[in-house]
C-alpha cells in the first residue's frame, strides 16, 4: 500500500489529572584550599538557601495559587478542597490551608495598598457595599452583620481596578476608604456617601428604576415612569461607543429633557407613601440632585451596575463559604478578591497572574517601593 494523503476525521478531548511533587533543594558547600591556611578568611563557603514563600514551609506559589483560585474563583471552601489534596497524596489539614491564605496576604499587603492608592487618584470611581458575617469580631455577636466595601474604576477607564475592603459596620468607617479622593463618585443613595469629601457624588439610575420595576407589578401608575426610565437606558445603549465628551453632549440634548419628563411624571402620581410606588417616589426624589448630575459627566454610565457586578462575585463566594471566622480572615478575603477581580477585569488569567505575583513580589523584600509594585498591578495604569 502506498500512502497518498490524509484528512481530519474527528477530534477527541482528553484530560490529564493534576499531580503534586516535592522538589528537594540542596545547597552545595565549597572548600577553598588556599583559604584553609588563612586565619582571617573561612575555609568553607556555602550557597545561600533560595528564599521560599514562607519560612520552614512546603508552600510554593503554584500550590497557594491553586488553593486561592479554588476558594475565590471556583467558590470551593477549604474543607471541600481537602479531599482533592488528600487524593493527590498530600495529607494536609484545613487549618494549614487557612494559615497559608492569611500568611500569603501579609506578603501582598503592600501591593493591595498600592492598588487602593492608585484608585484614589482616578478622576471617576464607582462605589458599593454588601453584607458579610464575621464570627469572632471584637464586641459583636457572631450573628451580627459586617460590611464589604467595593471601589472600582468607571466603565470608560482604559484599565480596570477593583478594590475590596472589610469594615466592621456600615457607618462612617467606610468613608475612610475615600480619604484623599478628589474626583467624581458614582454610588447609590446610602447617606454615608454624602459625607465623602470629593468633587461630586453622582447617582445611579438603575437603583431608581429597580424600585419602580417592583412597584409596577402591583400598581399600573408605575408603568408610565418605568417606560420613561427604559427609554433612558435605550438611549445610553446607542451612545456606548462614544467618548465621554460626546456622550455628555448627547445627554444634554436628549437625556436631560427625558429626565424632566420623569420628574414631572412623579409629581402627578397619587399613591400612599408606604406603598411600593410611594417608596419608589420618595427614593427617586431623594436622589434627584445626584441623578441630574449624570448629564454633566459623560465618562460615567447612568447606572452603577459595573460595580454591582463586582459585588456579585463576592455574593457567590459568600453562598459557598458563608462567613469569615476572624477579622484577619475577613481582611485576607478582601486582599485576594482585589487581586483576582482586578486581574479578571483587565482580561488576565487570574491563575497565571497569581502565580506570577506570588513568585516575584516576595523577592522585593519587606519594604518594596510603589514603583517596584506598579509592575504587578494587573496592568492597571490609573491616572
Task: Outline the structure in words.
The structure is a single chain. The chain has 383 residues and is of the alpha/beta class. It has 12 helices and 9 strands. It has helices at residues 61-72, 78-87, 94-120, 205-216, 221-238, 244-268, 276-286, 288-292, 305-321, 327-345, 350-360, 370-374, and strands at 29-31, 44-46, 124-132, 134-136, 146-153, 162-167, 184-186, 200-202, 324-326. The strands form 3 sheets. Strands 6-5-3-7-8 form a 5-stranded mixed sheet, with helices on both faces.
Short recap of the structure:
With 383 residues, the chain is α/β, with parallel strands linked by helices. The chain contains 12 helices and 9 strands.
- The N- to C-terminal Cα distance equals 69 Å
Count of separate DSSP helical elements? 12
Radius of gyration of CA atoms, rounded to a whole number: 27 Å
Largest sheet, in brief, is: 5 strands, mixed
Coarse morphology: elongated
Strand content: 5-15%
Strand order of the largest sheet: 6-5-3-7-8
Unreliable residue runs: none
SSE-based structural type: alpha/beta
The H-and-E topology, N to C, reads as EEHHHEEEEEEHHHHHHEHHH
Number of strands: 9
Mean pLDDT, nearest integer? 87
Helical percent range?
40-55%
- The assembly state of the depicted protein chains is single chain
